[in-house]
Design a protein that fits this description.
The complex is a heterodimer of chains A (222) and B (581). Chain A has eight helices and five strands, in the order H-H-H-E-H-E-H-E-H-H-E-E-H. With 222 residues, chain A is mainly alpha-helical. In chain A, helix 4 links the parallel strand 1 and strand 2. Chain B is 37% helix and 16% strand. In chain B, the strands form six sheets. Chain B has a five-stranded mixed sheet. In chain B, helix 9 packs antiparallel against helix 19 and helix 11 runs antiparallel to helix 16. The chains are: A mainly alpha (222), B alpha+beta (581).
């Protein structure tokens, strides 16, 4: 086939020769790629808190997420496609979560399940709580609720499927190559408090500013 | 409704002249001991008076009086009311209090928690490291003068958010624009990272390589968790192995430490109720009860008759679903991948339906109020409960029993594994089914009755071998007993009001302290509260069974195979929300 003919294949009403009807279907690469990804979303077996219990319930008999091809929970990040962040993200835990995310092969998705993972929830003011996993990871779907019911989780996962349907292989984050944290996110570490490597200059400047302020106040008091 | 102090403790001040005095602050009970005499006093209390069971140990920061108090709640395993004693030191660092670990080994984690959150140095504690936060974290966050990054005001309701109703993101107010805080002048580039794990590994590395049969062997350290399919959440255990045998083990926790107590001390009394749901998220009903009980004790109010029955029904249903899940998950840990768990979840859903019908939520029920419950049970739900307790649940528990109890795999994997004697279980402050599986018939519903449990006819389930198999069996026994209680309760539930108080947002709580304890499905759940008469608690401490029961984990695991560790942990029945709070 010549190049021009190949281009014709992309036209919507390309005529299939009669001898090939019933044996050949024409589709786009995106659609077939998306079909594969959306029909076997394997979540990582990884629960943080209360929401994890509802996640298990969604996997169990009554709600049965297996109907949507999402039942294969993988304890290893290497084999999973979607990370359901189910529960409160704490400062002590967040380095581990980021490391797990970095170990997931692309395509990879993140679902923030519940109020805590979405924005800190009732524990936001806590000194050991990260107010939402989206401070570190790109979140695809947020599911509200404390905890969200299994139905809500399934709804969220279906929304993720719809999102996948609309994606194009040319523009997805991990093949784009433009964004620095497209595939791997810098892992935060635990110092006197949680330190996000991306924010080091900001933290340094602010701490210096505070120190300068303190010095200004001190002579005045003396 | 304060229980009078038992007669034999009344002359304690005379027994230790100058060192012990009665706590005469209004609303307080018990004794105040000087730190110098603390060990002698504790020894006396345990050996002479028979208070062999240390249940709760926590620190209280009395900032205005410049006092750091440590509170001990001790009980007798033969039953009866408990004894409270306190010791205190001035609030200037270092705050030093002798450790009671030599008298009650169960104080181990609780003292580490007090060190972590309050900076109380327990002299004589062999492994005083931070337990919930990481090594290197700055400050002791539960102190009254320690402020978090999203600090707004000392207590709720925060005026800035109310009554204007204008919302400002906490991030916008915080100095660093996020939930982080650093000292002025802190330079993350020049800061040399300290390994937060260093102290942990140091505490394990007392084992050296040795030569056996001419072959040099070495111990290896295996980290299990915080992300591990069999640690029931974000729990982590660091295990030292000699081949496959566990030589040493340290549990590492705090990965779900979401600051219940700090938030709880900012909340009003009533605002804490939904937070208790999220402690042990399998049993929000029981958690509600524990907290309601402690506050009712402080307030001295009665509970409406019908509400008492509703409480029992909800708590016992909760116990059944908890034990079902435990058994299902235990089988999961043993390798029967998810089949028994699926059966367990089927029954649990039916019980959750009842919870949803009465409270509006499947898991986070937020159902109890001071003096009663928040909504009545309607006829439909009551009929559903009747169906469950007279027909479905007994049948299904029987089925579980038939399917599992004599199962060859269960028997060979569980029998004789990781035994704990009665003496050890008491010393390590084990609670609930773990204690009773070791042959100590201690059930708070009998030993120190609360609610209306004295009206029901039931047996305290007890097993005597203390091994894994007994820990499994005791859960089956307890479900049978819960069914018995439920059957009596649904038959005799009276009509009437469901709360003794009018519903209100504010709660008047007189100054004082109280310790409310309930027999949760996982063990003793206690709330130690201090009120100053304000709308918010001054101290809100939760004594959780998961946390204290893990003290004996190392003891149980040493000498077993690594594969059994997973099952042993499963049988302790931990839940991370309550372990880390």
């Amino acid at each position: 086939m010549k190049d021009e003919d190949l281009r014709d294949l992309n036209l919507p009403n390309y005529e299939i020769p009669p001898e090939l009807t019933g044996q050949l279907a024409i589709t786009t690469l995106d659609r077939i790629y998306n079909f594969g990804r959306r029909s076997s979303l394997w979540p990582m077996m990884f629960g943080l808190a209360c929401c994890a219990i509802e996640m298990i319930c969604a996997q169990a008999g009554r709600y049965d997420m297996a109907r949507f091809g999402m039942e294969v929970m993988r304890p290893s990040p290497r084999q999973s496609d979607v990370m359901i962040v189910a529960g409160t993200v704490t400062k002590k835990m967040v380095p581990a979560i980021i490391r797990l995310y970095n170990q997931m092969p692309e395509p990879k998705y993140v679902v923030a399940m519940g109020a805590c993972a979405s924005g800190g929830g009732p524990f936001k003011e806590g000194y050991n709580v990260v107010a939402g996993i989206d401070k570190f990871l790109p979140v695809d779907v947020y599911i509200p609720g404390c905890p969200p019911t299994p139905q809500a989780l399934i709804h969220g996962m279906i929304l993720l499927q719809q999102k996948i349907d609309r994606q194009s292989i040319k523009h997805v984050r991990w093949y784009d190559g433009k964004k620095e944290d497209a595939v791997a996110v810098p892992v935060p570490y635990l110092g006197p408090d949680l330190i996000d490597p991306r924010r080091i200059p900001e933290i340094k400047a602010k701490a210096a500013e505070l120190a300068a302020q303190e010095q200004q106040i001190a002579p005045q008091q003396a | 409704m304060t229980t009078p102090a038992p007669a034999e403790t009344l002359d304690l001040a005379a027994r230790f002249p100058g060192a012990v005095s009665a706590d005469t602050r209004p609303g307080y009970t018990g004794w105040i001991v000087t730190p110098e005499k603390l060990l002698e006093f504790a020894q006396f209390v345990r050996d002479e008076l028979g208070y062999d069971y240390l249940v709760n140990l926590c620190a209280v920061d009395y900032l205005p009086e410049n006092r750091m108090e440590v509170v001990y709640n001790v009980f007798k395993t033969t039953g009866g009311p408990g004894l409270t004693f306190k010791t205190w030191a001035p609030r200037t660092d270092p705050i030093e209090i002798p450790s009671v670990i030599s008298i009650w080994p169960g104080a181990d984690f609780q003292e580490r928690e007090a060190w972590d959150l309050y900076g109380v140095k327990f002299i004589g504690h062999p492994d005083l490291r931070r337990i919930l936060m990481w090594e290197g974290f700055e400050g002791h966050p539960m102190r009254k003068d320690w402020q978090e990054a999203f600090y707004d005001e000392d207590v709720k309701p925060f005026k800035r958010r109310w009554p204007d109703g204008k919302h400002v993101y906490a991030e916008k107010r915080a100095v660093y624009g996020d939930n982080i805080n650093f000292k002025p002048g802190f330079d993350p580039e020049k800061w040399t990272p300290t390994d937060p794990e260093e102290a942990l590994y140091k505490s394990l590395k007392k084992y050296k390589s040795e030569t056996t049969d001419g072959i040099e062997t070495d111990h290896i350290i295996v980290n299990m968790g915080p992300q591990h399919p069999s640690t029931h959440g974000v729990f982590r255990a660091v295990v030292v192995l000699d081949g496959e045998t566990v030589v040493s083990l340290k549990p590492v926790m705090g990965y779900l430490h979401r600051n219940h107590e700090k938030i709880g001390e900012r909340n009003t009394w009533l605002q804490n109720m939904p937070y208790t749901d999220r402690l042990d998220y399998f049993n929000s009903m029981t958690n509600n009860w524990g907290y309601a009980l402690a506050v009712e004790k402080l307030m001295g109010i009665p509970v409406a008759e019908r509400a008492e029955y509703i409480r029992v029904i909800m708590a016992e249903l909760s116990r059944i679903q908890n034990h079902l899940i435990l058994i299902g998950m235990l089988l999961n840990d043993l390798g029967a991948y998810f089949t028994p768990a699926l059966y367990a979840f089927e029954e649990r859903e039916l019980i959750l339906d009842v919870f949803e019908a009465v409270s509006g939520s499947r898991m986070m029920c937020n159902y109890f109020r001071f003096g009663g419950v928040v909504r009545d049970i309607d006829e439909d739900s009551l009929r559903k409960i009747k169906d469950l307790v007279f027909d479905r649940l007994p049948r299904k528990i029987e089925e579980f029993d038939r399917l599992l109890t004599e199962n060859e795999i269960i028997v060979s994997r569980l029998k004789g594994v990781a035994p704990l004697t009665a003496e050890e279980a008491i010393a390590y402050s084990m609670a609930g089914p773990m204690l009773r599986a070791s042959g100590v018939p201690y059930d708070i519903r009998r030993a120190d009755p609360y609610g209306i449990y004295d009206r029901f006819d039931f047996d305290v389930a007890v097993r005597y071998n203390g091994d894994m198999y007994d820990r499994y069996l005791i859960r089956v026994d307890e479900m049978h007993q819960s069914i018995r209680i439920l059957q009596q309760a649904v038959k005799s539930i009276p009509e009437g009001p469901i709360a003794s108080q009018k519903p209100s947002y504010t709660t008047k709580v007189p100054p004082g302290e109280s310790y409310g304890r309930v027999e949760g499905p996982k063990g003793e759940l206690g709330f130690y509260l201090v009120s100053t008469g304000k709308p918010n608690p001054w101290r809100y401490h939760v004594r959780t069974p998961s946390f204290v029961n893990l003290t004996a984990l190392e003891k149980m695991c040493i000498g077993t195979k690594i594969a059994d560790f997973v099952a042993i942990l499963g049988a302790v029945d931990i839940v991370l929300g309550e372990l880390d709070r």
